[in-house]
Protein: Tetratricopeptide repeat-containing protein
Amino acid sequence: MKISLLKHYLRLSLFLLYFTTVHETIAQDSIVCHALLKKGVDDMMNVRYASALENLSKSKALAQSAKLSNPLFLATNNLGLTYFKMMDYGQALTYYLEAYELAIAQKNPVNEMTVLNNIAIVYIKEKKLEQAESYFLKSFAIAKEQKLDTRIGYYATNLAQLNLEMNNLAKATTYIATAVPKLQSEPRILMSALLVQNAILLEKGFSKEVLKNGLPLLEKAQKSNFAEEQTELLLLIAKAYFKDRQFDKAMHYVERGLSSTQHHEVKIQLFELHSQIAFQLQLLEKSLASKDSIIQLTQLLSDTKNSELLENTTLRFELSESKYALAISKAQSENQRKVYLLSIILLFLLLFILLVVFYKRNQLTKQKRIIEANALQIKHLELEKEKNQRKLLEHEVELKNKMISDKVLFQSTRNELIESLIQTITRATNFTSDVTLLQSVKELKSHLKEDVKWEDFTAHFEHVNTDFIHALKLKHPDLNANDIRFLSFIYLNLSLKEIASLLHISPESCRKRKERLIKKLGIEITTPLYTYLTQVAKTK
Structure:
């Protein structure tokens, strides 16, 4: 039976980054950045991915603004690890690429080997085990070069696990023998290494030795609350019992494993073993149900995998690695100075071009604003001119109406004087017997009738107040000529007494006629008739 404990790779990487974070952030001043990093990693370890992404993103932003180089690397790489745990491998590799470029820029071999280790894990997920081994070996070589014992233990464990996957048991045994002594100060990682060691033993057929080692390890993992390690140990112990043909005990531990984890890949392994155990126990329905669960979980993993994005990002990473190697080669040659100077010249040239373009664009913008301002001013002046012309026209109409009003009032005054003179003559005692007086009264009365030339008045008024007459007729088509003449006097702001004199009627008759017209026009009695007529005049 093939032993596969892929979760160990991820767990080792997570602890590796957390270890680095703790030691690195103690030396830097930003307590907030350190707290966010620690919280983000804790959230990631406890499958609180949304909170992990939020805290790690905040930590990254803070590190960028404060120019904290190593915390920036740690936040970026841990973001990649979070996306990896979420099975978004394309996004994970994007962050790994960014972290790798940061490590190169910082000339930090520790960070570089960290990212190389994580890249290897991605290749394992893609079943490219030989490429994964090459990246693990690079990390392992840097750790040995830097004489970092704990890191040597980490990467040796990863290499042991990988060679176990590749069925290179001899190499796996050698690597795990190197790893275990280096990890005595790291209880959780040591437990992971011991898991790999017992998986190798099980693959070699030493099931009883695995049970002897595994059961105490399971008890220790439970006491230490190592949830993922408990699941892996339950799987390992179940496989050992299965190989030892103790199927009931194997079923017990595999069912404990299924109830202790929500990780799909581990569940697939548990369901595979569960199906085999159920088959051996003649529990065919359980065996088939496990097969169905395997199909469902496999389909779920397949659907969430973004192969295209992962391949593109992997290519970008490899290109970045090639560029880095090329940059090192150029750094050792005489051409570096020429390239540097040429880059500076091109940069200044580009800057000059950008400045010219910006200046021209700024000038065009200013000219456009001036043109728009001038156009707006011209429009404003035209509106002012139109307004002044309208005022001038209104003033001219007012003057002409004043002239008409004065003429009408003059005529009214004449009529009053003539009537007064007639009354004075008729009151004379000898009026009826004096032929001369009678003839004079007749002539005066004839002047009284003929002096008011209503047709001339109407024509002149309509000529001056065309808009008013038109609007009034349009709004009240039932008005007759006498109504319009009366309303014209009102529009000229003549009093009822003056209008009564002009029309040779009593003031009381004039008042009643006004009331009748108000009703005919359909306006409120509280609204002055003159105000209403001026509003009608303003209606175009």
Summary: The CA atoms of residues 335 and 341 lie 10 Å apart. Confidence is low (pLDDT under 50) at residues 1-7, 21-27. The radius of gyration is 53 Å. The longest helix spans residues 335-426.
